[in-house]
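Researcher: Structure prediction, please.
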Amino acid sequence: FDRGSANPSIGLSISSDGGDSWPDYRGEVVAPAQGHVFAVAPSVAKVGRTWVMVYEESNVAQVWWAESNDGLRWNVRGALIPHGRSGSWDAHSSGTPGIFVDRVVRIS
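Model: Predicted structure follows.
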């Protein structure tokens, strides 16, 4: 979602035809944090009754996360994977995240 500024954010559109079109545009649901340049590249999954989103945030990529009860209104929780110490593999960037939900099924 580009608000016409240099600070892209995450928007929501809803499809009622299996993803062929996305006419129900709801607007911005997650904006960049104060002093950050962007919030982009969301990945969303429903875990139980809660929607979970991971996304890329900041001037230099970091993985942040948010939760929602309805998938429409999101509560930003903050950095999930902040930058590491100087010299570490993630000292400069950790971004473009994805979600994998692993479920255990018990057979009795």
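Model: The chain has a mean pLDDT of 86.
Researcher: Thanks, that helps.
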